[in-house]
Amino acid sequence: MKTEELIDLGRVRISGNQSVVWGGLEAGVRLTTAYPGAPISELQGNFEQLAKNLPRDNPFTISVGEALDKANYQLTAHWGQTTNEPNAVGMALGGTICKGDFKEREFITDEEWDLIWGETVFAKDEKKRIPVGARVMTSFKHLGGSTAADALRTAMNVVPYVGGLGIASGDDRQATSSQTQQDNKVLFAMHYRMPVFELHSPVVANRTVRNCYRLFEELGTPFGLVMNYNLAYREVTVDLAMNIDLAANHRQRAFVRDPQHLVTIGPHIRPREVKWMTRLLPMIRKKIKENYELLGGEVVQYGSKPKTLLVVLGPFREDFRMVRYDEALRKRLESKFGDVVAVAGDVVFPQPQELYTELISKHPIERILVFEEGYARVVYLQLLDMVNTLGLNVKVLDRTIAYEPRIYDRFSYIDHILAS
Amino acid sequence: MAATAKPAVQDEVTYMRPVSNCAGCGDTKVSWAVMEGMRRYNREHNLKGKDRYEVVYVADRGCGNLQGWHNYRIVDTIFFMGSGVIIGEGIKESCSDKQVVITASGDGGYNFNLNAIKIAGKNKRWGAINVIYNNFVIRMTGGQIPLETDFDKEGLSLGYEEVIHVNPFHVNDNAELFKTLIDRYFKKEKILVVADGVCVLDMTRDARAEGLKMGHFEKTEECLDVKFAKEKERVAREEPEKLKDMPRFKCRQCGIGLRCHALLNNDPSICQACGACKQFPCVTDCLAFQGLSFADSVSIDQLKKMGKT
Predict the structure, then answer these.
(1) Does the beta-carbon distance from B79 to A96 stay under 8 Å?
(2) Residues A375-393: pLDDT tens digits?
(3) Are A260 and B95 inside 8 Å of each other by CB?
């Protein structure tokens, strides 16, 4: 049986939403659920077309759909049926917890496997393989993060059975079509304590999505993907070459009984909450550092003795890439900050502490400037906490823009960085 | 000055419960019937080993999540409030063809997530067997009166082919019912099973208020566990050094199967008169029930008539 399918569809114009669909398909996602709402309706809309629930009416779904059909790709999409976000997340959870198959380890050591899977019914597996089932994606607009909070918080109580679940949130931070201006990074990071990423560009979002499935499935935890309005809708032209994980898509199906994990009552979840905070989260932080580039992150240095560390996320990160290609911008950056090192990543929570401590010990860093969009300063607070806890002699300064400034005319985030 | 009588205070009743389902709890009796129904289905179709079907029992929050019985498989999953049916719909997407997903929620959960009940009722891909534990009041959180519910009309309009009301304490009849429902599940039919009057604490209170004297279970001397308890007492008295080598109990199929503290401890004084043991298939046929029980009826009016006759 084929385990991979290579599809090359040439040059195609896709949106941010479609880029996430692309990443999900490459990961072999078999079940998608959603409750629609701007700016993310299109994400599930594309899955619905690919699953033939709706007519395929755009170049992306027509060409990709045809290729998936040939590859015998299995996809079930629930949109009209899931009548609200809690039900969309609930159905996704049910689809994720069935671990009827195994895969070989790719990222974790024996000891890490013991920590993650050692208390489950799979603990006796001598080869220490990863119990897996369907990879599942659920999506909603930012308001869904509030309405589905019960389901999402409960999902963290059934770690590691929720590995293989990706949760996409379309943030309408300017309330263009919503009743609140909301930043779901807060909910995912501070309330659910779930690994969360802010995607920064439709050109590469698919890679982050695909690799998140690979890594976090082994770590047994769901992950959040947050996009702002601009990213969700903006279209780019890409060379659409897909490497589809058919082995993940065609996994065996079965529910495996484990009431200690799947019945969420106080005596079962209390020890796991402690374990999550004290042992699993630090381990996940370490794995994120180890796989920082795989997860779409990079460290860029301008000059030999940087005293300033820039942390750029989301749209800031996308604009900051221009410095690499624009001599004038580089000069402006140098005159503003002198030598700099920039951490440009998609990961919002948990921040890879070891990466920062390494950079701080290697360079004469005096200050860290954090550029993130959204009102909660999620990354800033984590770095502040790190500096205080470790007693580092570095200042952490917040350079947040609370809300997405403009959506129809592109706001210059690089100008904001250089003016700060 | 003449003393005026204080008006009687009518307050809601919140029972002190053990941290597992009460003796006589209807939830656990239905749970047994679901599992037993599947066993009988396999036996009837002569299915063995890998050919056997198995139930995945997906429950909701409420009395079903009281701690203490989960090692004995009262349910397979419990997530968040109102989630039983929708989690079950997700599991149907990812479980094997040999697994039958049966979902359960209380009457509180029914109203809390009517959406999900409808999703299951309208989903053309799968059959659905959805059990509603009908307490008549939302007992778990203090006895609130729920929305008025007409399961018969609502069930049909939500997409279910049939709404079946059962007495939760007719464990044998219910096991037979679930056995027949498995075939209908495979034909993608949607069935709503309403277990009326699952809270014996409520009904016992009402029965007492009406002056009804409820009965209790009885075990004959042939009961393996009773015999074993006597033997254990003798060993404790005469050969205490051997006590540590003895198992904790001998049979206890009725107590564990029905999740009943009264049967487990062989203590009729804590029996709640559910009457489920009348129909429980005891291997030595030594289980009986003396007097009125809620297996006779969950209606206090009917029990009154029976009590008079």
Answers:
(1) no
(2) 889 999 999 999 999 999 9
(3) no
Residue A232: count of CB within 10 angstroms of its CB: 27
Instruction: Over range B207-211, report the average pLDDT.
Output: 91
* Strand residue runs (E) in A162-280: 165-171, 196-198, 223-228, 235-245
What is the helix, strand, coil percentage profile of chain A, to 5?
45, 20, 35
The residues near A375 (Cβ < 8 Å, ≥ 6 apart) are A181, A183, A186, A400, A402, A403
> Which CATH number covers residue B61?
3.40.50.970
Q: Is residue B170 situated within a structural domain?
A: yes
A94 to B94: CB separation less than 8 angstroms, yes or no: yes
> Is B278 within the bounds of a domain?
yes
The verdict on B254 and B190 lying in the same domain is no
Q: Do B95 and A87 touch (CB under 8 A)?
A: no
The verdict on residue B17 lying in a domain is no
The count of domains in chain B is 2
Q: Are residues A83 and B123, on separate chains, in Cβ contact within 8 Å? A: no
Beta-bridged to residue A299, according to DSSP, are A343
Which chain A residues are Cβ-neighbours of B81 within 8 angstroms?
Answer: 150
Same domain flag for B104 and B232: no
What are the pLDDT digits (tens) for A221-280? 999 999 999 899 999 999 999 999 999 999 999 999 999 899 998 888 999 999 999 999
* A259 contacts in chain B (CB < 8 Å): 70-71, 73, 75-77
In whole angstroms, what is the distance from residue A98 CA to residue B56 CA? 11
Check CB contact under 8 Å for A90 and B83: yes
B187 and B236 assigned to the same domain: no
**Residue in A87, A95, A263 nearest the CB of B77:** A263
- B96 in the same domain as B170: yes
* Residues of chain A contacting residue B50, judged by C-beta atoms under 8 Å apart: none
The reply to whether residue A255 touches residue B123, judged by beta carbons under 8 angstroms, is no
Q: Which two tokens stand for residue A419?
A: 């003016």
Measured between CA atoms, the residue of chain A closest to residue B67 is A265
**Mode of pairing for the β-strands spanning A196-198 and A136-141:** unpaired
Domain range for B304: 207-308
Q: Is B216 domain-assigned?
A: yes
pTM score > 0.80 for this model?
Answer: yes
Q: How far is B281 from chain A (nearest CA, A)?
A: 26
Mutate to test the interface with B, among A91, A121, A162, A262 (most CBs of B within 10 A): A91
ipTM of model? 0.95
Residue B162 shares a structural domain with residue B224: no
Where do the domains of chain A lie, and which CATH numbers do they carry?
A: 4-290 (3.40.50.970), 298-419 (3.40.50.920)
Which among B146, B174, B198 is the end of a domain? B198
Exposure string of A276-291, with b = 16+ CB inside 10 Å and e = fewer, is beeebbebbbebbbeb
CB A243 within 8 A of CB A4: yes
The residue type of A1 is M
